[in-house]
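Workshop exercise sheet. Pairs work together: one partner reads the sequence aloud, the other fills in the structure field after running the prediction. Swap roles for the next sheet.
Pair: D.N. / O.F.
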Amino acid sequence: MKHLTEYRDAARVREVLDEIHRLTTRPWRLMEVCGGQTHSIIRHGIDQLLPDGVEMIHGPGCPVCVTPQELIDQAIAIASLPDTILVSFGDMLRVPGSRGDLFQVKAGGGDVRVVYSPLECLKIAQENPDKEVVFFGVGFETTAPANAMAVFQARQLGIPNFSILVSHVRVPPALNVLLSAPEVYVQGFLLAGHVCAVMGYWEYEPLAARYRVPMVVTGFEPLDLVHGIRMAIRQLEEGRAEVENAYARAVTREGNRPAQQLLATVFEECDRNWRGIGLIPSSGWRLRPEFAAYDAAQRFAVEHINTQESPLCRAGDVLKGVLRPNECPAFGTLCTPRKPLGAPMVSSEGACAAYYNFGRVEAPKQPGS
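Structure field:
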């Protein structure tokens, strides 16, 4: 584990932590909704430096982790076809489907490639006119504009052999479901700064008011995170429930309007399945009818593929914050990065991967044990 003492702003972080200790008078449960924030919290041990009773709950902030297994199986089915190139971000290659993963398809001779931008896929398609090029488009609002741009440019450039398998999800509807679930007990949220940089944070204001839950837009560095935690706890201690912005250097209330306009041009809202959680109304995006020619699920007729997740994998409970990764019976034994049961163990933003990689192997002791 990289200790906080190695962090360049460790002294400032400790000053904020001291203020959090002075400010806190009772237990509070906060949820961060970003896998990058989860990894930073666990890596630097920030949750262990908070006052007793202040808990950090890890939410569904990893887009790879919430991608449903049927989408993984659809991607595997497409990648297994002849004369097809399936392109993806690297995280997706090791996510388990019902029978293997994309790495195994690649090892078996399938043309599976990793890119850092969906726009690279257009060049691949132009260089391989005799093959179908499919981009596996996964992510929250952060990556959606670039994926929308790839589809938009494919139409503008007249590239017929490019399509996208869409698995985009939206954060606000997921928070609405969590706040409505009786098994989920969270009193405040840290919102993902990169999501809000695109979409703004106005969509969260009705949620904060309706459920009387503070929400703070937060960055990813330890100093960002403790500032966000301090603001959330101050609201709770004062009995307020507002959306505040602790990441003003990158986020405005309105967000990136040109990016939002591009999204509205290419995508429309739809119901979407979240792995381990289920169907969440209006929580996803799909291509608009005028861009349906670029829909890989329709082009390759894989929409009918439905699968059953492993009953041993408790990823859904982990993603909802009901269960900590090291409280899952399979954690570190039946489920490891080499042989994962679910995406949270292999994604670079997965909570299970954070606990495994940074030594949080033992489950916390229960009171009285």
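Discussion prompt: The CA atoms of residues 283 and 307 lie 20 Å apart. What would you look at next?
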